[in-house]
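Example 5.3 — Phenolic glucoside malonyltransferase 2
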Amino acid sequence: DKTNERSLSPIPTGELEDDVVMATVVLSGDDVERLRERVKSESPDQSLHLSTFVIAYAYTWSCLVKARGGNAKRSVSFLFLGDFRERLDPPLPATYSGNCMFPAGSYNRKAVDFAEERGFVTAVEILSDLVKGLSSRKIETIVKEFADAFESLHGTSQFGTVAGSTRLGVYQTDFGWGKPVKTDVVSIGEGGGISMAERRDESGGVEMGMCFNKG
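Solution (predicted structure tokens):
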């Protein structure tokens, strides 16, 4: 709302359609390692940042673009939230205890970049650059890039976001009645996003939550 840019009002939420379902797709530690080795063998860049987050997000995103189908030249965009608490210049004071998050993403790409056979590896290469760029690029540059792209995002046919991380330790949380049996990020249902968490009973595995229509 340009008439009230500084507002604490929550973002309006829409009604979910009746045919929307939530599902969890699991990647085992072995799955992640096989995908990591595939990237190493197919990408000419041997300095890629091949974290579990990058591998899992890239694989899921490329699968979603393929599943959507449609015009190969349609515009697609995807992003994630970066933690800038230790990346600001001048730095935040040591006593700072809040968040400092901002999106880093790849905007207005062509669907064919991710839907073709090499789509997964392409997504890894892009995400790797974005993750490494959190430390090497000034936040002002990333903010401007997002602001410039934001105006044109209404024309994108598919928009990917991810909530969570494999490092949050959600399954280690215990408020006195034991660790969670299952966790879901219900807010992803509002925008067709995905969520990510570590597997409950396996080190190195990933749970990817998705919310889409049944079709």
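Remark. The chain is about 30% helix and 20% strand.
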